[in-house]
Specification:
Outer Surface Protein A, domain 3, disordered N terminus, three-stranded antiparallel β-sheet, 6 strands, alpha+beta, single chain
Length: 104
């Protein structure tokens, strides 16, 4: 059985910010990120790199989604699915931190 000890739920009101234990570089519109704890590299395409740039300062998922919808031609449902998948991937790689406000 494979499961995480603490499962974090990502919602529209979750605040996302890049982990401090990483370094990243822009590679012609794409991004490469090095997790300093694990030594693992992660690559992001143009849209992923844009999201990565947005979360260098804390942003809610709602704000990230609004920025992507304003900048790219994408259906809302597709944006929701892809954004959540990317954030879950980044969380699993320990490249982001999530803060959920219990009062929301």
């Amino acid at each position: 059985m494979n499961f995480k000890a603490v499962e974090q739920k990502i919602s529209e009101n979750s605040i996302i910010v890049a982990s401090v234990e990483q370094i990243s570089s822009d590679l012609g519109g794409e991004a490469v990120i090095l997790n300093l704890k694990s030594g693992m590299y992660h690559g992001l395409n143009e849209v992923g790199a844009r999201i990565w740039n947005l979360i260098q300062t804390p942003k809610t998922v709602k704000d990230i989604k609004a920025a992507i919808l304003a900048e790219y031609e994408v259906e809302v449902e597709q944006c929701d699915r892809d954004l959540l998948a990317l954030l879950e991937e980044l969380l699993g790689a320990e490249l982001i931190n999530i803060q959920n406000d219990a009062t929301v």
